[in-house]
Specification:
InterPro entries: Tnp_DDE_dom, Transpos_IS5-like. It holds the Pfam family DDE_Tnp_1_6. By secondary structure, the chain is mostly helical. Among the domains are: about 70 residues, no CATH class; about 90 residues, no CATH class. The protein is built from seven helices and six strands; from the N terminus they run αααββββαββααα. The protein has a two-stranded antiparallel ribbon with strand order 1-2. Helix 1 runs antiparallel to helix 2 and helix 2 packs antiparallel against helix 3. The longest helix has about 45 residues. It is elongated, with a radius of gyration of 26 Å. The chain starts with 13 loop residues before the first helix and ends with a helix.
Length: about 260
Amino acid sequence: EASKENIKLRQSYKRKSKLALIKQGRYFHAKQSKRAHKETKRLKTYLGCVKRDIERKVENPNQRLKSLLEISERILTQSKNSKNKIYSIHAPEVECISKGKSHKKYEFGCKVSLVTTSKSNWIVGVQALHDNPYDGHTLKSAIDQMEKITGLRPKEIYVDSGYKGKDHHPEDVQVHLSNKSRKKMTRWEKMWMDRRSAIEPVISHLKHDHNMIRNFLKGKEGDRINAVLAAAGCNLRKLIRAFFLFLDRFTFFRAHICQISFFHN
């Protein structure tokens, strides 16, 4: 950005920072944390030198340069226990989401709320949620969005244990949690609770088939657009598949009638 603004830096550290970043990744991969942290400290030193050099030479930076300087200041001052950390310079809205799984402890991005029908797994609600909210707080807005899209309000919903907390549940909708004892469930509740896990393959298809796993659109608005387009693409694919399946059956049925008529004649 400094070169675009024709700011002549004392030293850009372009090659040195690239080498330090490569070394940092290699050391972390080899589980040599002391060496890796040393390279991280070196990168921060380079960033601080460039930042102070720009501030000395530019009195009134433009909006783009000013935002980059502010992000740089946050990166230099943030610590392990800081809130609202910067994980990406070019996407500062990215958050660290704890997965709680041994093979993948954390994911970086934003949460997405998803509502599907119990029988056919049609997606009837999708929201990109920023600031890493508690799952239970998102339930009412997810149901309201579904009602706005479909014109129908569900009587019962089946969710995982992350949505626990009756204070967050809407009063006119019965919420069934997956951690409820199966002995207390009726036969129908057991059946629908078993269907709850059918949302997991839908999430996987959205991530890997419809590009939700990596968003190429910028900013929070880009996250929302990406989530909506991925869900729309998933529904459209199901609709096209159903249409061609019906067409194949209709063609086969018509050919069968023609064959019978031919032999009859």
